[in-house]
Amino acid sequence: MAIQSPEGTRDLLPDEAKFWAHFKAVAADIFGRYGYLPIETPLFEQTELFVRGIGEATDVVSKEMFTAISGQNLQTLLDGGSIKAKSRLSLRPEGTAGVVRAVVQHDLVPQGAQPAKLMYAGPMFRAERPQKGRQRQFNQVGIECLGAEEPSVDAEGIIMLMRFYAAIGIPVESTRLLVNSMGCEACRPAYREAVRAFMAEHAGELCEECNRRAEINPLRAFDCKNPGCAAVMEGAPKITDHLCDDCRAHYEAVKAYLDGAGLAYVEDSKLVRGLDYYTRTVFEVQVTEGMGSQNAIGGGGRYDKLAQEVGGRPTPGFGWALGYERCVLALEAAGRAFPPAARCDFFVACVDDSVRAEAFSLVQAMRDAGFAGEMDHQHRSLKSQFKLADKLDAAQVAVLGPDELAEGKVKVRNMQTHEERLADLAATKALLARLSAEPQGFEPPSIDEVFGA
Ligand code: HAM
Description:
- This protein has two domains: 14-172 and 279-333, Bira Bifunctional Protein, Domain 2 (BirA Bifunctional Protein, domain 2, 2-Layer Sandwich), CATH 3.30.930; 346-450, 3-Layer(aba) Sandwich (Rossmann fold), CATH 3.40.50.
- It has helices at 14-33, 47-54, 59-62, 71-78, 96-105, 151-168, 188-201, 208-216, 227-234, 245-260, 306-309, 324-333, 356-368, 382-391, 402-406, 425-436, 447-450; strands spanning 37-38, 44-46, 67-68, 89-91, 116-125, 137-146, 175-181, 266-267, 281-287, 296-302, 317-323, 346-350, 373-375, 396-400, 409-414, 420-424.
- It contains 17 helices and 16 strands.
- The chain is 38% helix and 19% strand.
- It is an alpha+beta fold.
- Helix 7 runs antiparallel to helix 8 (208-216) and helix 13 (356-368) runs parallel beside helix 16 (425-436).
- Bound molecules: histidyl-adenosine monophosphate (HAM).
């Protein structure tokens, strides 16, 4: 059998690959208006970065990371030897840790500087059990803002994400925005203890995994998919009843900004997110129908301690990431399809082989002038050249035959109206030559104008 793509990965075929490029361009345009600039970081980092940044006890780090290892180091390990910490590498399971590492390493937010607003788009890797909407390699678009702790940063980041979903075609009414606050190092420890004590009281009703979680990271139990655990955790203490004054004020201010922007949201005190770096604001955007259990199309929050965790000076941060593939599923659920990738302004058809060289040069001249087009490369009959032009959805077909050529003419058919006319070949070529001298990116005239309609 022919070799297939690895489990949990997907090829983006041309229509979709073009849509992904469009998706990123719309993101860059919208987020650029909010001051976000692109950053590119490596697809793999030292494993230590993710362990320290995301948290050793998270599923992402403890179960789902792909290790990247050079052939020589692999051999050393297989031989029972050990390798240096800096040679322990992992494919990035998310983008935040790498971006924060880059900000610290390159001192992008010197003391007193304005915040660094950064955006990225690209593949992330998690060794999860693949299912619809859950892949092992998936694409994220994300933003990170480092150097400001004001709630306005959180609010504008969330607003910007919701604007993006609408701009790309995901109906806002099909989404639900959940918000919560995770508190900070001042108020969270006491809250965590309260949850642990509650879980101890209900140990008999909780699954084994949750009882283990109660020891290491009790808040993870809010994410347990077991219906029995979910029912028990409904009665657990709520973080929003345990926030310190500063965290409460921050949370209230974020919500006030969202209210002011007219953005609907649901407060969900059980929203804890799967990564350990969050402080204060956390949020998630879900699609309400047609997506099954993998319905989170984006999420994020504030991480005011992460820069210190990876060895930098205190630098507050806020960010989020959206899942591209889940956005595609949301678009499908809303009945939207990709626009076809290919564009074909014209097709040059040859009546016989004697005009092939002339046709070849006309096609080149058209492309140099900014038009997209094709000719036959397989010696098809005139009839099947027209069929091909139809298939490519060509707007116009220029037919070159020995008789027309002898008179310096070319026959042009508008494929929509079926109107035909004879255009002067020399005049057409002179116009095309003028157009091709124009700088790239100018708006070419319509094909009708080129053929002197
Ligand atoms: P996350 O919630 O783990 O957050 O991932 C963000 C989004 O990526 C999810 O909402 C989902 O749409 C998509 N996603 C996650 N895992 C998969 C998967 N296996 N297959 C397909 N899509 C997936 C983060 O990654 C944080 N770094 C977000 C952040 C940025 N927080 C602060 N700054």
